[in-house]
């Protein structure tokens, strides 16, 4: 089992310190969020990103595409243009850091109503351009299933299947267990062959991204099922520190949270 941790859980620390934390824990895999503040503030500093490369190459790294304030289905053409620019930048970054795959968020309708053909058309144009460049760079793009929201594309298993089959053999999937909740069996039935990466966390009171050991939904049988099916990808812990009882955890407390979840995952197999 390949267990990874999202760098976003340690968002308040410089990247060099995050690398040290992961080494201390013994983590060999990570999902890197370029929007970690230290990296984001320095991302156009070539000396900085080059210096970090030596550390990234010591890990098995997946990359999460920038998504804060972005929406590939936005009504605003400048926002849509920004999403494409950020995605193409991410593809170049993934190539530089030898990441094999990038997780993408689907679009959403800007208002709290179901997506229309217009939102889907904008999203597909975004995918067309992004996939063209990613395939040329030998980078796999993975669509992440979203939490259930009326205005979101990509929370419904049937819809995710439709999108993936539209881009068959081009686009793959990041399965977020906590986003899927009670739909996870349906996701397995429909799109298990497309799953090459995962996010995993606990669900409490139907809220996502709690520590896995606190989850009110037992994902153990689905983890086992995915492994038995032949899944070789990462189980990436994606925990939100805002979900924890204490407002601000120390570094040591955060490390303890991760270690307990890693031990839980390792106990499954």
Automatic annotation (TrEMBL):
UniProt keywords, alphabetically:
Isomerase
Name of the protein in its database record: Xylose isomerase domain protein
Q: Does the keyword Membrane apply?
A: no
**In the record, which residues are listed under signal peptide?**
none
Please give the Pfam families that the UniProt record associates with this protein: AP_endonuc_2 (PF01261)
Instruction: Spell out the SUPFAM superfamilies in the cross-references.
Output: Xylose isomerase-like (SSF51658)
**Transmembrane residue ranges:** none
Q: Which InterPro entries match?
A: IolE/XylAMocC-like (IPR050312), Xyl_isomerase-like_sf (IPR036237), Xyl_isomerase-like_TIM-brl (IPR013022)
Please indicate if the UniProt record lists DNA-binding as a keyword: no
């Amino acid at each position: 089992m390949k267990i990874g941790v999202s760098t976003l859980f340690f968002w308040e620390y410089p990247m060099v310190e995050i690398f040290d934390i992961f080494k201390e824990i013994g983590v060999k895999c990570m999902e890197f969020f370029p929007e970690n503040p230290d990296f984001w503030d320095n991302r156009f500093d070539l000396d900085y990103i080059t210096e970090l490369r030596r550390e990234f190459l010591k890990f098995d790294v997946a990359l999460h595409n920038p998504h804060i304030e972005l929406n590939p289905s936005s009504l605003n053409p400048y926002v849509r243009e920004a999403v494409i620019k950020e995605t193409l930048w991410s593809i170049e970054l993934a190539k530089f850091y030898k990441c094999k795959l990038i997780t993408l968020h689907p679009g959403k309708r800007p208002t709290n109503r179901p997506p229309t053909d217009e939102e889907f058309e904008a999203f597909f144009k975004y995918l067309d351009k992004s996939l063209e460049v990613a395939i040329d760079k030998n980078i796999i793009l993975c669509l992440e299933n979203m939490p259930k929201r009326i205005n979101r594309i990509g929370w419904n298993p049937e819809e995710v299947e439709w999108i993936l089959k539209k881009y068959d053999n081009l686009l793959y999937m990041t399965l977020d267990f906590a986003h899927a909740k009670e739909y996870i069996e349906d996701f397995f039935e429909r799109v298990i062959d497309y799953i090459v990466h995962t996010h995993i966390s606990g669900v409490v009171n139907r809220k996502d991204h709690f520590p896995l050991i606190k989850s009110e939904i037992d994902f153990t049988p689905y983890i086992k099922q995915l492994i038995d099916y032949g899944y070789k990808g990462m189980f990436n812990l994606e925990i939100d520190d805002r979900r924890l009882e204490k407002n601000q955890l120390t570094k040591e407390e955060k490390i303890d949270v991760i270690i307990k979840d890693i031990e839980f995952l390792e106990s499954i197999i």
